[in-house]
Structure formats: C-alpha cells, structure tokens
Design goal:
Blueprint (H helix, E strand, L loop, with lengths): L1 H7 L6 H9 L2 H18 L3 E11 L25 H13 L4 E6 L5 H17 L5 E5 L5 H9 L4 E3 L7 H7 L8 H14 L2 E4 L2 E2 L6 H14 L3 E6 L18 H18 L4 E4 L1 H6 L3 H8 L3 E2 L6 H4 L15 H14 L3 E2 L8 H6 L1
Bound molecules: 5'-deoxyadenosine (5AD), iron/sulfur cluster and FE2/S2 (inorganic) cluster.
The site of FE2/S2 (inorganic) cluster (FES) has 7 residues, from α14.
Length: 359
C-alpha cells in the first residue's frame, strides 16, 4: 500500500513500477483508480465525447489470428455498406449532435478503396457543413493514401499496434509480409507525418502476454507520444486460430480488471490524451464502459452502424449492441454517462488536448 502511494506520487513510472501498479489489488488498486480519476478531472475534465462508429464493411484482406472477421474465417457473411447507408449514418450522427464519426472497416488497399474513402469524406463534410469531425480506422496504408484522406478532411486515425512486443506480435499475427510489424510501426509514424491526431492501443489478456509486455506497451505509447488510445480486453473467438489457446487465458474478469488498470496508468502517464472506453469492456461487464469513464477514459464510440449489419462485424464473441439501432444506443448511453458522473460534449470534436499542446 505504502509502496503504491509512493509510486503514485511520482511524475513518471519505471517499467518495474508499472508492473507493480498492474499487479495492484483491492485497496492498492482503489488508490490507483482514485489517482487516475483525479488526473482525468484535472487535465481533460469530466466530459465524454461521442464518436459515432460506422462499421462500414467486414471485408478484410488480413488474417490476424485473434479476429473474427479475418479473411480466413469462411463462416462470416461479408457485407459492405452502400455509400448512401454510410452517409445516412453520418447524417444521423450530425443531426444527433455527435460531433464526429469514426469510419471503421477491414483493411483493403488499392486505388478503388482509396478513392471511395476520399469521396465519402467529401460527402460527410458536405452534409454537415464541415462540422462533423471524421476519424478513420482502416489499417495500414501508404503515406500518400494517408495524406490524400487527410486532405479530404479526416483528421484523426486509429491504428492499434495490438502489441508493441515484436515476438508477441508474430504470435498473434501470421509472420508474413502482409502482417509486418515494421510496416505497422512505419504506418504509425507516417500518420503523424501526414498531420493526423494518432491513436493506437493494444489488446489486454492475450495468450502468451505478460505484465512485462503490458508495461512495455504503456512505455511504447509514451515514447511514441500518441494523441489517443483505444485498448480493451482480448476476447476469444471460436472461429480463429487463437481459440486453441483459450485454456491458458486469464479469467474474463481478470482481463477486464487488467484493462481498467492499463487505462488508469496510461491516464496518469499521459495526462491530456484522449482515451476511449472500448466496447470490448462491455462484452465482459454490463457496465464496463462506464467503469472506464469513471477512472480515466473520456471518449465513447456509440455504434451507429445500421442494425442489420451489426451482427456480422463480430471481431469477438459477446459484442454488445448487436440487436440495437443507432437511436437505442444514443438513449442508452446518455443515461449511462450521466450515471458515471460525466457530461456529454455534444457538437464538439473533442480533439486531443495533447495534440493541440504539441502543435
Ligand atoms: N478481442 C478483442 N479485441 C479484438 N480486436 C480484434 N479482435 C479482437 C478480439 N478477439 C480489436 C483489435 C483491432 C480492433 C478493431 O478490434 O485490437 O485493432
Ligand atoms: Fe482485418 Fe483488423 Fe481483423 Fe486484422 S484485426 S483481420 S486487419 S479487421
Ligand atoms: Fe448500445 Fe446501450 S450502448 S444499447
């Protein structure tokens, strides 16, 4: 206990100290959460920003070992929203004062895809008089593609590193040129160079993952000086190769607690970044996202994908809100966020204060 109090008084943490914080239980963990909640209130305030999440397609060229929509999973019905469906969803976000949207989909490369995203970005800007902010989350692309999309109006990009440890990275991805760890690192640097607010993150509770890996992940984010983070518990999916290793996993509840501790420690380490409350938290705990908002997260991504597609964007089992429509999630989240002691930052982009400070 005394030790944790001592660590929490510091301005930066060593690897060993992060591991200690990650191991904290009971009162020690409560001290950690109190410190991170205080940091949040002081540096970003108790305001939660909405990013309407449009999961526009589950067609993916990659084959990540953990992901339910990997190209090798033949049991998934593939879908691709029409441009109109995507723009209608963006319109819903705009009319409901969400401030911004996230376009997320499987990773596809090529001119047709690049052009499509470019046109959608123009369309979203047009329907909202330039007022809707847009975050992209469509994987690794070349610098030129990132630049084109930035010029078309996207200003934030999410690309999780998944694990910053190269060895672990190749245990959860095929070891081939389409899943290169170096290329992922280059992509993150290119995003910064192209002008984006850059978000990354990891999965927590992966097979073979240790507290040392997770401590290194937090140090990696600090060293990369990221602007935003989205990280959540790993949840096994039956139609993926990592399913074979499920017996060695931490129990779900422990993965959930570890994810909360990761968020809390990162909030203290990188005080004014944006931290998303990952949907995967709610796959484990019915009020999991609210718990994360209480102790440090300040971003939530209400699903605004048209209801009939939601069940097919199943990265992991037990994904919440697959039977709901956009309006259901809106009402539900309003109540939940007030419960967590936060206000909703309607009509605001809610940009990363960390990014603003750097520029
Ligand atoms: N459990 C938790 N998160 C997952 N993701 C993909 N598969 C899973 C899973 N089985 C996450 C990855 C990816 C994000 C879009 O979803 O971190 O970056
Ligand atoms: Fe494709 Fe992303 Fe799933 Fe990997 S994690 S298979 S890139 S959707
Ligand atoms: Fe989707 Fe509660 S957030 S139904």
């Amino acid at each position: 206990m005394d030790n944790i109090t001592h660590i929490l008084k510091k301005n930066s943490f060593t690897h060993a100290e992060i591991v200690q914080l990650l191991s904290s239980e009971k009162e020690a963990r409560s001290l950690l959460f109190a410190a991170s909640a205080e940091t949040k209130e002081k540096y970003v305030g108790n305001v939660v920003y909405f990013r309407g999440l449009i999961e526009f397609s589950n067609i993916c060229s990659k084959n990540c070992y953990y992901c339910g929509i990997r190209s090798g999973n033949k049991k998934t019905n593939r879908y691709n929203l029409t441009d109109k469906e995507i723009l209608d969803a963006a319109k819903f976000a705009y009319e409901n004062n969400y401030g911004s949207v996230v376009l997320q989909g499987g990773e596809i490369e090529g001119e047709a895809f690049t052009l499509r995203i470019e046109k959608l970005l123009h369309g979203i800007k047009e329907l909202s008089d330039g007022r809707l902010g847009v975050t992209l989350s469509v994987g690794e692309q070349s610098f030129d593609v990132y630049k084109r999309w930035f010029n078309a109006g996207a200003h934030r990009y999410l690309l999780r590193i998944e694990s910053s440890n190269k060895e672990l990275y190749y245990k959860i991805h095929p070891n081939d040129s389409t899943h290169s760890f170096e290329r992922r690192m280059t992509a993150l640097r290119n995003l910064r160079e192209a002008g984006y607010q850059v978000g990354t993150g990891v999965m927590i509770g992966l097979p073979f993952q240790t507290l040392d890996h997770l401590a290194d992940d937090l140090i990696f984010m600090k060293e990369m000086d990221i602007d935003m983070c989205g990280m959540g518990p790993y949840i096994e999916h039956a139609d993926t190769p990592l399913w074979d290793f499920r017996d060695g996993l931490l129990p779900l509840e422990e993965r959930f607690n570890l994810a909360l501790k990761m968020i809390a420690i990162l909030r203290i380490m990188m005080k004014n970044i944006n931290i998303a409350s990952a949907t995967a938290l709610q796959a484990i705990d019915p009020i999991g996202r609210e718990k994360a908002l209480k102790i440090g997260a300040n971003i939530i991504m209400p699903n605004i994908t048209p209801g009939m597609y939601r069940d097919e964007y199943k990265l992991y089992e037990n994904k919440p809100c697959t039977d709901e429509e956009a309006a259901d999630c809106k009402n539900c989240l309003e109540a939940r966020i007030h419960m967590s002691g936060n206000k909703i930052g309607y009509n605001e982009w809610g940009d990363s204060a960390h990014f603003k400070e750097r520029n």
